[in-house]
Structure formats: C-alpha cells, structure tokens
Protein 1
Amino acid sequence: MPDLRIEGYVIVSADGMLANADRVMPGQLKFEGDKKFFTAALDRADLIVHGRHSHEGQPNSPRRTRIILTRRVGAIAPDPSNPKATLWNPAGAAFEAACDFAKVHSGTVAVIGGPDVFGMFMDRYHTFWLSQAPHVRLPGGEPCFPGVPERSPQEILAAHGLKAGDPQILDPAHEVSVTPWRRPG
Ligand SMILES: NC(=O)c1ccc[n+]([C@@H]2O[C@H](COP(=O)([O-])OP(=O)(O)OC[C@H]3O[C@@H](n4cnc5c(N)ncnc54)[C@H](OP(=O)(O)O)[C@@H]3O)[C@@H](O)[C@H]2O)c1
C-alpha cells in the first residue's frame, strides 16, 4: 500500500462553479495570485491526478508525473503521447495499482479535477485547498463537485469530515482567497 498524502486543488466562483456553461475554465476564474499558489503546489507534488480535460497546461507540466483518468483504456496503460503519464480507468484497476504503474509509492498527490475526479477522492483528502473568487458568478456553469449547487462546496467538504482552516488571501483586489480544508487527526 503506497504511503500517499492526497491533496485537492480547485478555484471556484461564488456559485460553486469551476468552469462555464461550455465546460471551459474562463478568464474570469484566472488570477495571478491563485496561479502562483497552484503552480508552486504542483511543483512540490510527487504525482498529479486529473481527468482527461483538466490538464494544467503550465511550463513545468512536462516534468510532472501524472495519472490521467479516461475510459479509453480498460484499466491501466502508458500514455503514448507522454512518457511521464499513466492512463487509468478506475472501473478496471485500483488507484494504488495506477500509482504502482507510475512508480509513485510515497509523497504528495495533487488531485486537480474535474468534478467527478474530485468526488472520487472525497474521503481520502488529507487537505483540500479551496480557492474562491467571491465576485465571479458562472450561471449554468460546471459545478466543482458532484452535489453542487444543491449543497455548497463547503458543505460537501464538511460532510466528508474536513474542517476549514484559516483562509489565505491570494488576490486582495479581487478578494480571492484559499482555505485549507483538513482532515482532523
Ligand atoms: N476551476 C478549476 O480550478 C478547475 C479545476 C479542474 C478543471 N477545471 C476545468 O473544468 C473543466 C473540467 O472538464 P470535465 O468536466 O470534462 O472534467 P475532467 O475530469 O477533466 O474530464 C472528463 C474526462 O475525464 C475522464 N474521466 C473522468 N472521470 C472518470 C472516471 N470516473 N473514470 C474514467 N474516466 C474518467 C473521461 O475521459 P474520457 O472521455 O477519455 O473517457 C471524461 O470524459 C475543464 O474546462 C477544466 O479546465 C477547472
């Protein structure tokens, strides 16, 4: 069993959306301070995990070991287009098996979306870093977690046993902050 610390990262609008109605993350949700925070976290992580449409697309991305969720494979396969990526279908193999294939047996895992991928790890996060843009609204957008907007992202994190720590301001002009939601103990 790998010794992994699983962390989640998302920035959401005031109405709990991570993307607009076209399932695209709009410029309105992009803030330099949040980008710096996110980039530094990914640079420290030993493994990045995301769905096929949530690649972070950063200059350091080619250096990062990653697992990409897709139903295009039955279980686990190398990514023919990226030697540092493993393709994983959770219907066919456990996460631990995908980590083993990726040769990651310890360290920090950064889960970066989309919604179904966040939902899959909800009971396993050590810390979920919830960035919020309180002046952005994305009506009809893509909810950050399964269960939003019926419940808020905060209610969902709390329902999975996570507790909010002190928020940190990432962009004072737009009042963008990040709150760590940590699992006690
Ligand atoms: N605001 C933020 O912080 C933030 C964070 C993350 C993403 N985003 C944005 O939100 C949008 C997310 O797109 P999305 O909803 O399409 O999510 P996604 O999870 O990135 O991509 C969905 C695809 O991932 C694969 N996948 C997801 N769950 C799977 C499962 N349980 N088993 C197997 N494969 C699975 C499938 O790929 P196949 O089709 O290959 O089977 C599915 O079509 C993007 O625009 C992204 O930029 C924003």
Protein 2
Amino acid sequence: MSIDSNTVLTKTIGDHQLKAEISLCCVLHANYPFQIHVTLGAEKVFVYSSAHISNTSVQDMQKMFDSVTVHTCCNEGCDHPILQTESEDQSMQCSSCRSAAAKAEFAKAMIEIDREELEELIARKEQGMVYRTSIWIHAEFGDDEEKIVLSDRQLTKAKIQQYAKGAGSVTAKPDYSVCSIDDYIDSLKARIAEAEQGA
Ligand SMILES: [Zn+2]
C-alpha cells in the first residue's frame, strides 16, 4: 500500500528531536520521485528516492529517515548539531554559522566599496573638488538610480536638474543632496572603521 502524503516520522538521537516529512513537490507533481525532508531545529536536509510516491511504503520512508545522521558543526567552538545524508561529505557547518559567514562576506564587500569610494574622493579632492552632489534619477521605468557629481563649486539647481534630465529622470524637480567632500570623507572613514570593528 502506498504511503499517506501527510505521514510524519519523528525520532530522538541523543538530545536531538528529528522530524521527517514528505516534500510537497513529489505529492503535487506526478513525475517527481519520492522525496522527504528531515529537520532538526533550523537544520534541514533532503533525502531522495528513485521510486514514485505510489510505490513507496512507510518502511521505505523510515529507511530514508534512518540514513540521516547527526553530527557536530565543523567550525571550531561551535557545538551546534547538523544533519547529514549518506551522499554528503563530512565537513559541514550549521545553519547559524552559514548565515554568519554570509553576513561577514557581505560586510567585507561593503567595506571594499566604501574604501574604493574613499580613495577616489581623496584623489578628486586633491584635484580641487569640494562638493559631492547625490542626484536621484527617477526614470519612467525601472529602479531609481543614484548619480554622484563632484564639483569645485556648488551646482545650481538648474544644473542639477540638467544632470538629472540628461540621465533620464522624469521628475519636475531634482531630487538631490549636497555634501562637502571633506564631510563625506569623514563619514566614509567612520563607516569603514565601524564596519572593521564589527568584522
Ligand atoms: Zn556552527
């Protein structure tokens, strides 16, 4: 007899409560082979079968469930449990380490962008630039875009509108803010220092 698609299996390994459920894709799509996902807190792994759900029994699902083992996160100092299937290698990190790593990666990329801008601003300041004008381009279609104009004197509103229009902005008035390059350099330096401290 084929398995009920609502079947849920649970078991305890040590202190860990594991749960196995049938993935919706193999219930909804007639051509998908049977598939389950096993969870332990935020950890989740998939186990695939080659058979169709109509040819799968609870015992088959139990066997797939039993192929999932509990290990400890590969990161030193982290004792979070992770789930592994037979097909995976043994060096894996837990979901919270994975998201921390992704966050750190993103922060690093942001610092890099700030550093590049800082370098450029310092170089342009040496060339005599004093103002940094940020102009928002509101195009008829698509996302808004920021255009930065560096200048040795304050741009007139008419000039700013000319830049905005030239870049495809459709608003009647320019959407902009002006900052001295010195102030902007200071704020960039502060932002980089803060990000480095957090990293
Ligand atoms: Zn971890």
